[in-house]
């Protein structure tokens, strides 16, 4: 399995295939050429953690073989950043891990994930320099919800409390952004669009980490199992959503988010293609600031789970203290 020194040298390669780019492999190097056959990107396959391709493209069988050989997955996304296809290179032979996944029925990990999420939401609110009444009230409410999660044993109560806590957090944390509510995939405004994109990037990053150990991504410990839904990734992403939340609030305050960078199509906001690289850059950088913490979290989660350790030995992500 991938050690941290090896992981630290690897990177995610993102290619925007908007000008008929061509992918080629030469001497274990990934090469991307434009329509005029000019090399616009070259990187050794040994340093690629995963390859993300945004837009239409053609992928050769040689590239697919190299991804298997060097152990990096390929994510193919549409112009709207939704998944088109995924070429996996997971360690699928870890049968003991998967055996434990399907036997596990406890609620302890689920509760820990939700408590970790709310704890980070509290950290972000408390980190606001000048707090108004709404922020102070939200902090009190979130503290109550966190205690409630720790004492409950009912799935519906855990789910319901998490949902209410997130609604309280969003309303207070994004109140200066003309916040209209969190509506996944409805694209009612620029902030919801960027939140979807940021969470999507974070989802793929965590998925990439979990595949290093051979988890069955469809078998979760908190989210219910649905056909074709990677419930485990939906679980593990929860403590890390705060990374995107903080970046979006900071970017809004810095004037990096502009309505002119979006088109409105059928009453839905869409990020303009020529602005995608700019927004993608700072969203990915916010994740990269915590890449070490995410790696260690997934590694320690695997070690705790496979060895059936007590819940006190499971990792806990801190948005403030775990920054690189």
Give your account of this protein's structure.
The chain is of the alpha/beta class and 324 residues long. The protein contains 11 helices and 9 strands. The chain has helices spanning 4-9, 61-70, 95-103, 108-126, 133-151, 155-173, 190-211, 231-236, 241-253, 276-288, 291-306, and strands spanning 11-16, 22-26, 29-33, 39-44, 48-54, 74-77, 83-87, 262-265, 268-271. A 4-stranded mixed sheet has the order 1-5-6-7. A 3-stranded antiparallel sheet has the order 2-3-4, covered by helices on one side.
Please give a handful of descriptors for the protein shown.
4-stranded mixed sheet, Ribosomal Protein L15, Chain: K, domain 2, 324 residues, alpha/beta, 3-stranded antiparallel sheet, Four Helix Bundle (Hemerythrin (Met), subunit A), 11 helices, single chain, globular, 47% helix
Global shape = globular
| Rg over alpha carbons | 20 Å
How are the strands ordered across the major sheet?
A: 1-5-6-7
Helix share, percent: 40-55%
Strand residue percentage: 5-15%
Main structural class: alpha/beta
Query: CATH superfamily membership of the largest domain, which one?
Result: CRISPR-associated endonuclease Cas1, C-terminal domain
What is the mean pLDDT? 88
| CATH fold topology of the largest domain | Four Helix Bundle (Hemerythrin (Met), subunit A)
- Poorly predicted sequence stretches spanning 5 or more consecutive residues: none
């Amino acid at each position: 399995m991938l050690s941290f020194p090896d992981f630290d040298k690897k990177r995610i390669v993102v290619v925007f295939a908007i000008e008929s780019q061509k992918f080629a492999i030469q001497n274990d190097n990934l090469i991307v050429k434009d329509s005029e056959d000019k090399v616009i990107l070259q990187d050794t396959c040994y340093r690629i953690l995963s390859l993300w391709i945004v837009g239409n493209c053609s992928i050769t069988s040689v590239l697919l073989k190299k991804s298997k050989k060097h152990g990096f997955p390929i994510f193919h996304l549409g112009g709207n950043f939704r998944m088109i296809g995924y070429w996996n290179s997971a360690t699928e032979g870890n049968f003991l891990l998967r055996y434990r996944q399907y036997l596990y029925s406890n609620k302890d990990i689920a509760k820990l994930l939700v408590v970790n999420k709310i704890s980070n939401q509290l950290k972000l609110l408390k980190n606001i320099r000048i707090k108004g009444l709404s922020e102070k009230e939200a902090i009190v409410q979130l503290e109550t919800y966190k205690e409630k999660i720790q004492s409950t044993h009912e799935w519906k109560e855990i789910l319901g409390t998490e949902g209410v806590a997130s609604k309280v957090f969003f309303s207070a944390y994004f109140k200066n952004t003309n916040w209209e509510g969190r509506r996944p995939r409805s694209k009612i405004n620029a902030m919801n669009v960027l939140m979807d994109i940021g969470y999507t990037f974070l989802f793929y990053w965590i998925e990439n980490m979990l595949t290093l150990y051979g988890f069955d991504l469809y078998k979760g410990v908190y989210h219910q199992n649905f056909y074709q839904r990677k419930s485990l990734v939906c679980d593990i992403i929860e403590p890390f959503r705060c990374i995107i939340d903080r970046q979006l609030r900071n970017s809004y305050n810095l004037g990096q988010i502009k309505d002119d960078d979006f088109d409105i199509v059928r009453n839905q906001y869409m990020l303009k293609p020529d602005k995608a690289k700019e927004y993608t850059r700072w969203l990915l950088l916010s994740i990269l600031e915590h890449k070490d913490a995410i790696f260690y979290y997934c590694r320690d989660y695997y070690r705790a789970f496979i060895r059936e350790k007590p819940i006190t030995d499971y990792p806990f992500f801190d948005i403030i203290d775990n920054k690189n």
